[in-house]
């Protein structure tokens, strides 16, 4: 979370997360992006970038996260959906052939 954020209990964090989801459902994607960034909900943020047709921003975020967590098969899968179809093989391999969504 941002350095200016006040620590929240998990209940409040969950409510803020749901608020972000509500913003998306109302079409207020830009506002939802701010919520998801503050909560570091990367999957939701990537989804918003896709909705806003900001593929380059989504790929940049995925690459940044993969540099921190290269074994995260979910990120490889998300990148595959967004950008490079052949990444599906990498996602499946990184998951030790256990991640069915990569098939």
Write up what this structure looks like.
The chain has about 100 residues and is mainly α. The chain has two domains: about 1-55, no CATH class; about 55-103, no CATH class. About 65% of the residues lie in helices and about 0% in strands. It contains six helices and no strands. Helix 5 runs antiparallel to helix 6. It is globular and about 35 Å long. The model has no long low-confidence stretch (mean pLDDT about 80). Keywords: Repeat, TPR repeat.
The class by helix and strand makeup works out as mainly alpha
Q: State the distance separating the first and last CA atoms.
A: 34 Å
The biggest beta sheet is recorded as: none
Radius of gyration: 15 Å
Number of strands: 0
Give the DSSP E fraction (strand runs of 2 or more residues): under 5%
Helix content: 55-70%
**Could you give the order of the helices and strands?**
HHHHHH
